[in-house]
Amino acid sequence: MPDASGGAAFTALLFHSFGGPNQPADVRPFLENVTRGRGVPPERLEEVVDHYLHFGGVSPINRLNLDMIAALQAELRTRGLDLPIYFGNRNWTPYVAEAIAQLQADGHRRALVFPTSAWGGYSGCRQYHEDLAAGLSEVPGSAELVLRKLPQYWDRPGFVAAAADAVRRAQAQLGEGTPIRLVFTAHSIPIAADRTAGPPDGDGFLYSRQVAAAAQQVARELGLDRFDLVWQSRSGPPEVPWLEPDICDHLEDLAEQGVGRVVVCPIGFISDHLEVIWDLDSEAREVAEKLGMDYARADTVGTDPVFIAMIADLIQEYHAGDGDTQALGCADNGSFCRPGCCQLPARPARSGARSAG
Ligand SMILES: CC1=C(CCC(=O)O)c2cc3nc(cc4[nH]c(cc5[nH]c(cc1n2)c(C)c5CCC(=O)O)c(CCC(=O)O)c4C)C(CCC(=O)O)=C3C
Ligand SMILES: [Fe+2]
């Protein structure tokens, strides 16, 4: 029922993700989209090109998102929720503007938006809002649309339970033996970006605090009081501080401390995209092998029915037009959930870089 706080029911869902290349020719233009204006050093970019080419120039992210969409569509149907799902990405086709144009052409005026990032912060949240606003601006006549982004969901019990279950399966792979150290990882970001993450009147560091709290909740569910939190996939120039320690450095430290068995849980990602399979299944696994450690990587939550049910619950909370629109991350049409939220900090000039002037 329409009301001042929420409005009418939503009739479609936009599944909003990062995007990734589907073939070798996509790799460079995709990376240009991701890094435009972001100060990623060219030598880092060349390394990442090689990571993608190592996997045939195809990221699994698009296929895995389509699997999640199919599972979610089925779950919504069993709940009697008839919301067709549209797929749109920030950095590669199908772009979010294509999805918006399509849902509009199909007669939808109000759609919920599910982002594949669970987190706050510039990269995890605000950039998705900005991408929605940019997508809307490309679609003629879209001023009549309401696209409501669902809130951050890192603390939802279904996410935590699915991640805990994945850790249990990874522990089982290693079998009985000496104690296993549980190591959580998430995408590193510049510390300056973490500092500005969250509402401007808050304490900052929203992203790293959310990741730490999610890790804590998963560990608690597993009955573990000891776990580590580390970071992966750093891409900035070396002189710019990013969240540390890096997963590979941390494995070295653990080996020195006598830890012989680790389970790595990529809590920072909801599906196995390229940075998970390269950084964790190739690089970190190799480091662990070299150190003589037993190593298992927990699955991402992906199509785990418990996680899919969590997404469906979130949609159900919001689909009639109610739901907490003040929740962090929730906003319409690419506006921000708080004014000045999760600002992108000014990038320090790269020392040794040629001056632009
Ligand atoms: C917080 C965060 C998430 C989690 C939230 C979310 O899920 O959105 C995430 C996810 C992802 N990041 C991804 C890929 C990349 N991220 C890059 C670069 C960067 N990520 C950053 C942060 C994050 N990234 C940052 C601060 C940069 C530096 C440039 C900048 O300041 O923006 C680069 C450039 C090259 C490089 O340097 O690695 C690539 C290729 C893929 C898709 C992989 C695939 O194709 O399967 C996914 C899901
Ligand atoms: Fe990234």
UniProtKB/TrEMBL annotation:
<feature type="binding site">
    <location>
        <position position="187"/>
    </location>
    <ligand>
        <name>Fe(2+)</name>
    </ligand>
</feature>
<dbReference type="GO" id="GO:0006783">
    <property type="term" value="P:heme biosynthetic process"/>
</dbReference>
<comment type="similarity">
    <text>Belongs to the ferrochelatase family.</text>
</comment>
<protein>
    <recommendedName>
        <fullName>Coproporphyrin III ferrochelatase</fullName>
        <ecNumber>4.99.1.9</ecNumber>
    </recommendedName>
</protein>
<feature type="binding site">
    <location>
        <position position="128"/>
    </location>
    <ligand>
        <name>Fe-coproporphyrin III</name>
    </ligand>
</feature>
<comment type="pathway">
    <text>Porphyrin-containing compound metabolism; protoheme biosynthesis.</text>
</comment>
<feature type="binding site">
    <location>
        <position position="275"/>
    </location>
    <ligand>
        <name>Fe(2+)</name>
    </ligand>
</feature>
<keyword id="KW-0456">Lyase</keyword>
<keyword id="KW-0408">Iron</keyword>
<keyword id="KW-0479">Metal-binding</keyword>
<dbReference type="GO" id="GO:0005737">
    <property type="term" value="C:cytoplasm"/>
</dbReference>
<dbReference type="Pfam" id="PF00762">
    <property type="entry name" value="Ferrochelatase"/>
</dbReference>
<keyword id="KW-0627">Porphyrin biosynthesis</keyword>
<feature type="binding site">
    <location>
        <position position="59"/>
    </location>
    <ligand>
        <name>Fe-coproporphyrin III</name>
    </ligand>
</feature>
<dbReference type="InterPro" id="IPR033644">
    <property type="entry name" value="Ferrochelatase_C"/>
</dbReference>
<keyword id="KW-0963">Cytoplasm</keyword>
<dbReference type="InterPro" id="IPR001015">
    <property type="entry name" value="Ferrochelatase"/>
</dbReference>
<dbReference type="GO" id="GO:0004325">
    <property type="term" value="F:ferrochelatase activity"/>
</dbReference>
<dbReference type="InterPro" id="IPR033659">
    <property type="entry name" value="Ferrochelatase_N"/>
</dbReference>
<comment type="function">
    <text>Involved in coproporphyrin-dependent heme b biosynthesis. Catalyzes the insertion of ferrous iron into coproporphyrin III to form Fe-coproporphyrin III.</text>
</comment>
<dbReference type="GO" id="GO:0046872">
    <property type="term" value="F:metal ion binding"/>
</dbReference>
<keyword id="KW-0350">Heme biosynthesis</keyword>
